[in-house]
C-alpha cells in the first residue's frame, strides 16, 4: 500500500476496529459464496481482500483495507444483518463463523503461522512481478491455504455449482478468498475481538457500524 493512499481515519476505538476486521471476514465469506454460485465476483471487494492478504506489514490499520470503509461495504452489510438480527444468507454466515473457528486453531499453531508467513513473503515477490491479482499470485495464495489451513480439523465445505467449482482457477480463487478471511479473522482477534462479544456487545457493534455507514 503506497503512502499516497487516501485514508479515511476510523475512530481510535477498539469496537470500530473489530467491526471493520469482522467485516473483512464476512466479505471473504460472501465472495466465496458468490464465486461458488455464479463464477463471478465483485471486483472492488475482491481486490480489497487480496491486497489485505498480501500486505503483512501495513503502514496503518486503515491501510489494510485500502483506506476507506467502503472497500469493505460487502462485509459491513452482512455484519449489519448479524448484529441487527436481520435475515442474512445462512451459507455466508456459516462460512464466516467457520473462518473464526479456523483462525482460533491456526493462531495457536506457531509452526503453521510461521509456514504461512514464509509463504506470504514469497508470494509478495510474485505480486511485485506479476501484479497483486494475477492468476499466478492467486494460485499461490490458494496453494498456501490448501497446504496449511485445509489440513486442520475444522473444514469449510463450499456449496455451489459443481461445474463452476471444478472450472479453471476456481478452486484457487475460492481458497485465496478463504485465506483473506483468515487474515481478517486474525486482525479481529488482534483488535480484541472475541466470539462472546458478538452476543454480549451487539449494541456497541451496531453503534460502531452506524458510524461507518
From TrEMBL:
<protein>
    <recommendedName>
        <fullName>High frequency lysogenization protein HflD homolog</fullName>
    </recommendedName>
</protein>
<dbReference type="InterPro" id="IPR007451">
    <property type="entry name" value="HflD"/>
</dbReference>
<keyword id="KW-1003">Cell membrane</keyword>
<dbReference type="InterPro" id="IPR035932">
    <property type="entry name" value="HflD-like_sf"/>
</dbReference>
<keyword id="KW-0472">Membrane</keyword>
<dbReference type="Pfam" id="PF04356">
    <property type="entry name" value="DUF489"/>
</dbReference>
<keyword id="KW-0963">Cytoplasm</keyword>
<comment type="similarity">
    <text>Belongs to the HflD family.</text>
</comment>
